[in-house]
Amino acid sequence: MDESQFHREADATLARLAEALEAADGDALDVEHQGGILTIDLADGRQYVLNKHGPSRQLWLASPFSGASHYQFAAGARWVGTRGHGDLAHLLARELFPLLGAELDLG
To answer: Is residue 104 part of a domain?
Structure first.
């Protein structure tokens, strides 16, 4: 993947996730997407940060539940963990489900 494709795919993913989370959040989340960084503030003060990392062409996630993980773009327009964390969208949906009380379709 070249640099321009990485930025195109990463920006589209961050925007899609932000939109889906904002639509589903109620009062449990505060979602901000700006400058290649998606921040999800939880009502209890914990925070997710998902950002583009251009040099590695990865998305990097800091989760208050699963810790740090890195994701590479893979076939099927998915971001797959480099350390066995699985698919980014599924991880976020699984971790946020208990907070929202509803399933999220982030895929």
So the answer is: no
For residue 12, name the pLDDT band (cuts at 50, 70, 90): very high
In a domain, residue 33? The reply is yes
Residue 91 lies in a domain: yes
Both tokens assigned to 91: 């991880």
CATH code of the domain covering residue 74 = 3.30.920.10
User: Interhelix angle for 88-100 vs 3-24, to 10°?
Assistant: 20
Parent domain of 61: 3-98
Distance CA 96, CA 43 (A): 12
Tell me how far apart the terminal alpha carbons of the chain are, to the nearest angstrom: 21
Using left for φ > 0, alpha for ψ between -120 and 50, and beta otherwise, residue 105 falls in: beta
pLDDT tens digits for range 15-57: 999 999 988 866 788 999 999 999 999 989 999 999 999 999 9
pTM for the full predicted model: 0.91
User: DSSP letter at 9?
Assistant: H
